[in-house]
Design brief:
Elements (H helix, E strand, L loop, with lengths): L17 H6 L4 E5 L2 E4 L4 E4 L2 H4 L8 H13 L11 H11 L6 E7 L2 H18 L7 E5 L8 H6 L3 H7 L6 E4 L5 H4 L15 H10 L4 E6 L15 H12 L2 E5 L13 H5 L5 E4 L11 E6 H9 L18 H16 L2 H17 L7 E7 L2 E6 L8 H13 L2 E2 L1 E3 L2 E4 L7 H20 L1
Parallel strand pairs: 3-13, 5-6, 5-7, 7-8, 8-9
Antiparallel strand pairs: 1-2, 2-3, 4-10, 9-10, 11-12, 12-15, 14-15
Helix pairs in contact: 3-13, 4-13, 14-16, 15-16
Bound molecules: pyridoxal-5'-phosphate.
Length: about 450
Amino acid sequence: MKNTTINTEHFWMPFTANRQFKSKPRLLSKAQGMYYESEDGRQILDGTAGLWCVNAGHSHPKIVAAIQAQATQLDFAPTFQMGHPLAFEAASSLVSIAPAGMNRVFFCNDGSEAVDTALKMALAYHKLRGEAGRYRLIGRERAYHGVGFGGISVGGIAGNRKQFGPALGGVDHLRHPLNLQKNAFSRGLPLHGAEMADELEQRILALHDANTIAALIVEPIQGSTGVILPPQGYLQKLRAICDRHGILLIFDEVITGFGRLGAAFGADYFGVQPDMIVCAKGLTNAAVPMGAVIVKQEIYDQFMNASAADQIEFFHGYTYSAHPLACAAAIASIEVYKEEKLFERAAELAPYFEEAAHSLRELPQVKDIRNLGLVCGIELESQSGKTTTRAFDVFEKCFWEKDLLIRTTGDIIALSPPLIINKEQIDSLFGRIAEAIREQAQQ
Ligand SMILES: Cc1ncc(COP(=O)(O)O)c(C=O)c1O
């Protein structure tokens, strides 16, 4: 066992209770395939693909080799009025797995930037079409769209408003569709609640006037705030309402992209085509940060047709848009997904994963289990007056005593293992969580 002597004082950790963490640091120092190695030398089963992102498993040799080779070839090249071949190749590679007709790609560095990029595109698109009055953006309660000002505005997380205020104006939110009274312990998509989509027309559009709305942004599955699944038919209804009123539909697929549901994108899985897809995470298997917005050609064309060929059409971009290392990682990751048929694998494993997840139903304090593809949420009864403590106890128990990494949000455990997981590891994952939940309930 290694003795940890690192100085933890200078790193201000993101989304972390810094003082609590630093009093007993949970450190990961290596990773391979389905496992992390903790600083004290334990093999930790990865139940969360890092942070919903390492879909092909850790340190995949092909992705590692691609990054290493690229680092010696071209470290950086600007993509403002310049370019490098890999940027174009990475975009084509992404288009090769994107829904038909979605064939133009804007690169950024993460999900938050991709969200803000998509929102800006939506606003500019309407202006270019002569509909500058469409300035409103609609999100949903309990949505997570990253941490940019656009993302926190359309996101529906109270903590953001408490700490940063209302951010952008001209934003409204639909209610989220989680309904435990009607849908607890649903297997796959919940049966009840498609009519929640009608709120878009009945309340939001009635209140604001449809002609003022630029875009609706939704996560096909609300992941970060606790695995909230769309009821059957709900996303289809949203699409139809957006179509009726000329509103762009943006799918934030930062979590659902790259095989999580057993198809390349949630759009494929649900058979609903958005106008834009926001993605990140699995795009590079998380080996190098990268995000992207994939749009329908018509949106790109609108920008191209609106100005002279020597004018910059979209006044937006990042120094590291299409960074060569990220491009190398994206191309290699997409090849791995195809060669190893990982999206198909996720689809094949989903029923087994579902069965294993629902075997925890009778455990103490388990209030709901919800699942789709290789995603699962286990909601626990909160301890009186304290949301988060029960699930966090289970999380700590899993890490220190069960050699397992899970993720929690509020009192919900969220699971999203790499798509390379096998059946034995699925049994082990849920077996270890069951032990931790039982033991926690006895405390
Ligand atoms: C749906 C969704 N959108 C956006 C983001 C933000 O991505 P990033 O943390 O890469 O900025 C996340 C992160 O988890 C996410 O789940």
